[in-house]
Amino acid sequence: ESTLxxxxxxxxxxxxxxTQKLNKExxxxxxxxxxxxxxxxxxxxxxxxxxxxxxxxxxxxxxxxGKTIPETFxxxxxxxxxxxxxxxxxxxxxxxxxIPTMDQTQEIVADWKARSAVPQYVFDVLRAMPRDSHPxxxxxxxxxxxQRESKFAKKYATGTMKKNDMWEPMYEDSMDILARLPVxxxxxxxxxxxxxxxxxxxxxxxxxxxxAHMMGIPNPYDDVARMYFILHSDHESGNVSxxxxxxxxxxxxDAYYSLSAGINGLAGPLHGLANxxxxxxxxxxxxxxxNTLPSKEQLKQFLWDTLNSGQVIxxxxxxxxxxxxxxxxxxxxxxxxxxxxxxxxxxxxxxYEVAPGVLTEHGKTxxxxxxxxxxxxVIQVHYGVVExxxxxxxxxxxxxxxxxxxxxxxxxxxxxxxxxKSVTTDMLEKWAHEG
Length: 435
Ligand code: FCX
Hints:
The protein is an all-alpha fold. The protein is built from 20 helices and 2 strands. Strands 1-2 form a two-stranded antiparallel ribbon. A hairpin with a 3-residue loop joins strand 1 and strand 2. The longest helix has 27 residues. The structure holds alpha-fluoro-carboxymethyldethia coenzyme a complex.
């Protein structure tokens, strides 16, 4: 058994009594109350989910296992000769809370390689779809099609699996899926946009490096890929993709069903698709000006035009965050170093100067600052991935790391099937009158 699996087993067993004690002895302790606004308004801020993998502070942004983004990147083993860490080591960290050694990291590199063969029928399914299907539809379909491989589903069907053992096949499925996602993502990209010229994996490369290689994008795109996947991995449990994955897994659906569902949520324009929308918006803006950069005044006008037509400014605002997203900042730092003169990067910076003021004057959003999606597309364009429809697939490959770590722990700690309670509008009105 791998060091990762052994460590995870120890961690889960050591953790379980904490959850059980809280549930049994302190189950009645109140940690929140819910008002009508929250019942109508998307359960905003209601504290009713538990995860130890990441925590999102409204002012500070995300911490993975207690570490900020810069701390996480600094602590993890780096790919030799590269700036960015191994994504494999990051997954070890997400799952266990411990920074792996280089040897432990290399173990996962080898493990994922050994699991990376995607069954031919998955490609056949993709090839049977209309070529102009959205890449997110293809991505989600491929994951769902692969459910046939689920070790969890097979074990469950034997009728002999104990609740405490359920994390193990969940972990195995998660590792199988993660090993294959870059292959699937790159396949969709090359099939759809590059004349169906598929590039096979290079067994010498790590997970992020291999993705860049299979995409056919020259380095340093490998480091871009590693950085992207880590940045997009986890954002605590309440966001649509994480929550959906967790919700579906709570019915003891396996990791394939659960992740495919989460990816469908990520495909919404208010969530992951915002990165595609941002680039679309930027391209539109540039087109109106014959591909020259707008002045600040022009940019202000374009932002107002978007708002006045009833649309949101994609990439700005957040349900929880109340400051500039540190995932935006990390990408901005990267761009300052690697693409300082890129005109689209300059435009992104200009939007950052103008949009918060416009959104504040508009007066609706609680957070006028940019989120992760405001920046990601521009780096992709710089390195040659110009097909913005594809961007949410990149988000999805990264997001899989977080949500699969989460559902493995869900099974480890025996979390229950999710079942909040609904009420009727009549009831709300009655309670409203009663004050
Ligand atoms: N542009 C225009 N209006 C905005 C806005 C924006 N960027 N952000 C929020 N608002 C509006 C809301 O639409 C809402 O209007 P309403 O009262 O007429 O319904 C009002 O401001 C209050 O919303 P608020 O409480 O601030 O935000 P929510 O929690 O409801 O929604 C999202 C959060 C992220 C959905 C919202 O800010 C948004 O639509 N942003 C643009 C899309 C985007 O970038 N999504 C990606 C977010 C994230 F990082 C990710 O998941 O990838």
